[in-house]
Design goal:
heterodimer, A: alpha/beta, globular, B: 367 residues, alpha+beta, Heat Shock Protein 90, 63% helix
C-alpha cells in the first residue's frame, strides 16, 4: 500500500513496486483515508510519506501500528523533516528512506522492511542516536532506554554512512549481528515510546476520575 | 486613528466639561465686576472648544500651528480675568477656571512629557501674572493650580508617549506575524509541489543515467537548498548562538549525506561558523582527492559536553605519515584549515585513514 499526497510520486512508487513483483493493494493520498483503507485491505507493508494534507504522517504511523497485526511501515520522506521522521519511527515505522534514494535502494529497503528488518539510513541512525542521548540527558535517565556500548558503536558507524557489511568487517562481527544490534536500538525506542504513551494515558485517566 | 484617537476624545470631553464648569462659576458669581465681558469670554471659550474638538479629531489639522493657536486663545481668555473680575478675589479661579488645562493636555498628548510641561509652565505663568496684577504679593501666590497643571501635563504626556510606543510595537508584531504566516503558506505550497517534483526529477534522472543523471543531481541540490530556505519551523536559538545543524545541512547534496540529531546542536555563533568552515574544508578535500561525485558523509552528534562532527569518504585514503609530511613540507590543507580552526576552539581532530579504506576526520569541540 502506498500513501503519498503527490499523485506523481504515488503512481511512480506504485509502478516501481508492481514492476518489482509486489502487489499494490491500495494507493491513497490522504491520512484518514489511509488508516481506513489499511483496516480494510490489511497490507503487509505501507510506504508512507510524512507530508499529508489531513493527518500528519506521524499520526498515520501511530494509528497503523495499533492495528492487529500491524503492517510494516517504511517512511519515504523528503529530507529536512527530522523531527517527524523520529516521531514516526518511535510510533512504529521500521524504516526511513529519503525520496531522493535510487530505485534500487528503494526496492532493497522495501524488501528488507517486508522481511522484518529495520532499514537504517545514516540520517535515521543520527536521529536515533540523538534521541537516546537526549533521553540519557534527562533528569531521570535511569527510567529511559539506553544503548550498550556496542550498539552505540554500530549506530555511529551507520550514521557515518558505512554499510552493514563494512561495519561487520570493521568490528569483526557477522552481518546478522550488526543487523540485530540496529534492530535492537529501534525496538527499545519503540517499546519505551509505547510505555510512555500508556503511562501518559494512565495519568490522564487518573486525573479525570 | 490608532491609539491617539481616544486621547483626543478624552481631551475634548475635558474641555466641554470644564467649559460648563467655568460658565457655572461665572453665573454663581453674578458675572463678577463685568458680566458682559465675562459672558463674552465664555462665548469665545465655547466657540474655541467646538473648533478644537473638531480640529484635533482630524489628523491633518493636528500640528504645531493648531497647538500654538490653542495656546494663544487660552492665554487670551486667561489674561482677560482681571477685566472680568475687577479687583482680584482671594483663592478664586480665573474666569477660564479649569478650562485652561485643556491646552496643556493637548500639548502633552501631541508632544509627550516635555511639551506637556512646557505648556503647563506657560499657562501657569499667565495665571500667576493675572493674580499678581490683582495685587497679591508674590510670596502669597497660590501654587496648587500650578502644581496640578504640571502634574497633568507631565503624566498625560508620559502616558501618551508610552501608548504610542506600545502601539508601534504591536504593529511591528502584527507585521512580523503576517510575514511569518505568509512564509509558512509559501513553504507549504513549495513543499507540496516544487520540492516533490525536484525530488522526482532527481530520482528518475539517476535511473536514466548519462546526462539525465547530471540533471537529476542538480535538481537534487536545488531541492535540498530550497528546502533549507523554506524550512517551516526554524528552531529559535538563544542570542549569539547558532544551531550547528542548520549550517551543516547546507552541505547536503546528491553526494553528501548529512546526519544530525532531532534536537538542536547549539554552539556560540563564532564556534559554529568555524566548525562548519572546517567541515567545508574537509568536504573540499574529498572533492579534491576523490573526485566531484565521490560520496561523503557528515555526521554530527552531541555527547555530554562536546559536539562532534565526522566527515567520512570512501576515497583512496591517506597513507600513513602523509599528513605529517605535508605539514612539514609547508602544505597547509588539513593542518591549517581543519586542525587550526578546531584547535582554536579548544577542540581536537582525529584523522583515521588507511590506503583503500577511505578517510574519517573527526572534529570534536566543547559545547
Amino acid at each position: 500500500m502506498v500513501v503519498d499526497d503527490h499523485p506523481m510520486w504515488r503512481d511512480g512508487v506504485a509502478r516501481d513496486l508492481a514492476e518489482a513483483g509486489y502487489e499494490v493493494v491500495a494507493a491513497v493520498g490522504e491520512g484518514r483515508q489511509a488508516v481506513r483503507v489499511a483496516a480494510a485491505v490489511r497490507p503487509e507493508l505501507v510506504v508512507l510519506d510524512l507530508q499529508l494534507p489531513d493527518l500528519s504522517g506521524v499520526e498515520v504511523a501511530r494509528r497503523l501500528a495499533a492495528a492487529e497485526p500491524p503492517p510494516r511501515v517504511l517512511v519515504l520522506s523528503a529530507s529536512g523533516e527530522q523531527d517527524d521522521v523520529l516521531e514516526a519511527v518511535k510510533a512504529g515505522a521500521s524504516g526511513y528512506l529519503l525520496k531522493s534514494a535510487s530505485r534500487e535502494d528503494f526496492l532493497d529497503a522495501v524488501r528488507r522492511t517486508a522481511g522484518g528488518d529495520a532499514v537504517f539510513t545514516p540520517g535515521l541512525a543520527g536521529l536515533v542516536l540523538g534521541e537516546y542521548r537526549r533521553l540519557a540527558a534527562r533528569p531521570a535517565p535511569a527510567t529511559g532506554p539506553h544503548l550498550t556500548e556496542r550498539e552505540t558503536e554500530v549506530l555511529r558507524l551507520v550514521a557515518k554512512g558505512l554499510s552493514y557489511k563494512q561495519i561487520a568487517e570493521r568490528l569483526v562481527l557477522s552481518h546478522r549481528t550488526v543487523q540485530n544490534h540496529v534492530q535492537n536500538t529501534l525496538s527499545k525506542l519503540q517499546l519505551h515510546n509505547r510505555v510512555e504513551l500508556v503511562r501518559y494515558a494512565i495519568e490522564r485517566g487518573l486525573d479525570e476520575s | 486613528m490608532g491609539i491617539e484617537g481616544p486621547f483626543w476624545r478624552t481631551v475634548a470631553v475635558f474641555r466641554a466639561a470644564s467649559l460648563v464648569y467655568a460658565a457655572i462659576l461665572l453665573a454663581r458669581a453674578g458675572g463678577y465686576a463685568n458680566p458682559a465681558a465675562g459672558w463674552l469670554v465664555i462665548g469665545i471659550m465655547a466657540l474655541w472648544t467646538a473648533a478644537t474638538i473638531f480640529a484635533y479629531s482630524v489628523e491633518g489639522f493636528r500640528g504645531r500651528p493648531l497647538l500654538a493657536a490653542d495656546m494663544l486663545v487660552t492665554l487670551g481668555c486667561l489674561l482677560a480675568t482681571p477685566v472680568v473680575q475687577g479687583v482680584h478675589q482671594e483663592d478664586s479661579l480665573p474666569v477660564t477656571a479649569t478650562w485652561m488645562g485643556g491646552v496643556v493636555l493637548a500639548w502633552a498628548v501631541y508632544g509627550g512629557r516635555r511639551l506637556g510641561a512646557l505648556a503647563a509652565a506657560v499657562v501657569a505663568l499667565a495665571d500667576l501674572q493675572t493674580r499678581g496684577a490683582g495685587g497679591v504679593e508674590f510670596e502669597r501666590l497660590p501654587v496648587n493650580g500650578t502644581v496640578l497643571l504640571f502634574l497633568a501635563g507631565v503624566l498625560v504626556g508620559h502616558v501618551a508617549r508610552l501608548a504610542r510606543k506600545a502601539e508601534a510595537r504591536m504593529q511591528e508584531a502584527v507585521e512580523l506575524e503576517a510575514a511569518g504566516r505568509e512564509r509558512e503558506r509559501l513553504a507549504r505550497g513549495i513543499h507540496d509541489s516544487v520540492l516533490q517534483v525536484l525530488a522526482l526529477v532527481q530520482r528518475r534522472g539517476q535511473e536514466a543515467g548519462g546526462e539525465a543523471a547530471e540533471l537529476g543531481r542538480l535538481a537534487g541540490e536545488q531541492e535540498a537548498a530550497l528546502r533549507e530556505l523554506v524550512r517551516l519551523r526554524p528552531e529559535p536559538a538563544p542570542a549569539g548562538a547558532v544551531d550547528l545543524r542548520t549550517l551543516l545541512q547546507g552541505y547536503g547534496s546528491g553526494t553528501v549525506t548529512v546526519s544530525v540529531p532531532a534536537t538542536p546542536l547549539t554552539l556560540p555563533a563564532a564556534a559554529a561558523g568555524e566548525l562548519s568552515a572546517a567541515v567545508g574544508a574537509a568536504l573540499d578535500n574529498v572533492v579534491k582527492h576523490c573526485g566531484p561525485h565521490a560520496p561523503a558523509w557528515v555526521f554530527a552528534e552531541s555527547d555530554g559536553g562536546a559536539v562532534t562532527v565526522t566527515v567520512r569518504d570512501e576515497g583512496p585514503g591517506i597513507p600513513e605519515g602523509r599528513l605529517e609530511q605535508a605539514e612539514a613540507g609547508g602544505r597547509l590543507g588539513v593542518a591549517q584549515s581543519i586542525r587550526g580552526r578546531v584547535e582554536d576552539l579548544g577542540g581536537t581532530v582525529t584523522v583515521v585513514s588507511a590506503p583503500g579504506r577511505g578517510t574519517e576526520i573527526e572534529m570534536s569541540v566543547p559545547a
